[in-house]
Design goal:
Layout (H helix, E strand, L loop, with lengths): L2 E4 L14 H9 L3 E4 L11 H6 L3 E2 L7 E3 L6 H6 L5 E4 L7 H9 L3 E4 L14 H20 L7 E3 L2 E3 L3 E5 L3 H12 L3 E5 L6 H6 L3 E2 L18 H15 L4 E4 L14 H6 L5 E4 L16 E4 L2 E4 L9 H18 L14 H6 E3 L5
Helix pairs in contact: 5-6, 5-10
Length: 360
């Protein structure tokens, strides 16, 4: 019988857990044993007793056949893994290749949730998208908190207050969720992306489309890196457009590369004092020139917030979504009796596997 381990996350500020009790119960029904480290779910407000009630054992997860994590393992955690085990989690294979090499050297077969292909059959395993939904939602709430203005239009005895103007730069999953959330809160919303094919998605959410005349659609649903000439054009046009907005939320990322610069210092200086920039790309350098990753600063009267790991600030639902993703990927590796039988001819498994240790 396959044994799955769920350790307590050790990364600073990480409050998510890789499995929630509901998914534990599902795995148990498939004949899978689950062992959860004591306190693994406490930061997500899940007590050990809930895991026990779902059929899990509370104990040492590191010697299980499969270990499920959220954040990449530390060197100390890699040393705890069995040499013939499987690890599934966010592993940052492009930005932290050293971790992948250490896993390979330790004899661990590792699957990176970031590497799950964006195909229809793998949508239930797309952890990047599930966590981006959380980040996009929370980014708007953060912007509303930092703003000195109302988001919705208010009609009061003292007069009418105009709704806030919100611009979202980069309309992937996080950006679309940010547009939807800002619209629900009553703001006037506008979206921009270098992939013009997403314009209809932006309009479907009741937002306007900012057309700068640049097309940089890439592979796998991501944008390609712009040429220098395209970057110059984009910077100039965005600087002119940005000044009219009360809130700017940036979400633009290029896999394996520094985040593209979308909001320069000149654009920030041109915004009205009291405006807000929320930069969700801080972990890879930021989309705003004045961003200080992990910090909230005020420049030219504009608040610039660059929170890191926003999904972890909503650990309950973020963990629930992530647990569904990781369990769906694990399910591809199990046969009808719950035994490990990964088929590496499967596109999802072959592309998400970043280290493969072959028997013998």
């Amino acid at each position: 019988m396959t044994r799955v381990g769920v350790p307590r996350e050790s990364a600073e500020g990480e409050r998510r857990v890789a499995l929630v009790p509901k998914i534990v119960a599902t795995l148990r029904a498939k004949g899978v044993d689950v062992v959860v480290e004591a306190g693994a779910g406490l930061e997500a407000l899940i007590p050990d007793e809930d895991y026990r009630s779902a059929g899990a054992e509370i104990g040492d997860p590191w010697h299980a056949d499969v270990v499920l994590k959220v954040a990449p393992p530390t060197d100390a955690e890699i040393a705890l893994l069995r040499s013939d085990s499987i690890l599934i989690g966010f592993l940052a294979p492009l930005s932290a290749p050293a971790t992948v090499e250490k896993l390979r050297a330790a004899g661990v077969t590792a699957f990176a949730m970031e590497s799950v292909p964006r195909i229809s059959r793998a949508q239930s395993m797309d952890a990047l998208s599930s966590q981006a939904n959380v980040a996009g939602y929370k980014a708007v709430l953060l912007a509303a908190e930092k703003s000195t203005r109302f988001l919705p239009m208010l009609t009061t005895a003292a007069g009418t207050v105009k709704p806030a103007m919100v611009l979202v730069l980069g309309v992937g999953v996080a950006g679309l969720q940010a547009l939807a959330t800002a619209k629900r809160l009553g703001a006037r919303t506008t979206g921009y992306d270098v992939r013009p094919e997403v314009a209809d998605q932006v309009r479907s959410l009741g937002a306007q489309w900012l057309d700068l005349g640049i097309d940089a659609a890439g592979e796998g649903g991501y944008a390609r890196e712009l040429t220098q000439d395209e970057r110059d054009q984009q910077q100039k046009r965005l600087s002119e457009a940005t000044t009219g907005f009360d809130i700017v939320i940036t979400t633009a990322l290029v896999p394996g590369r520094p985040a593209p610069r979308l909001v320069n210092a000149e654009a920030v200086e041109g915004m009205r004092p009291g405006s807000v920039v929320v930069d969700l790309a801080g972990e890879t350098g930021g989309n705003c020139e004045l961003t200080e990753p992990g910090q909230t600063v005020v420049r030219h009267g504009v608040t610039i917030a660059s929170p890191l790991n926003l999904p972890s600030t909503m650990p309950e639902h973020a963990s629930e979504l992530y647990a569904r993703n990781v369990a769906a990927l694990l399910g591809l590796m199990l046969d009808g009796d719950g035994a490990l039988a990964p088929d590496f001819s499967d596109e999802v498994l072959s592309k998400s596997c970043v280290t493969l240790v072959k028997e013998g």
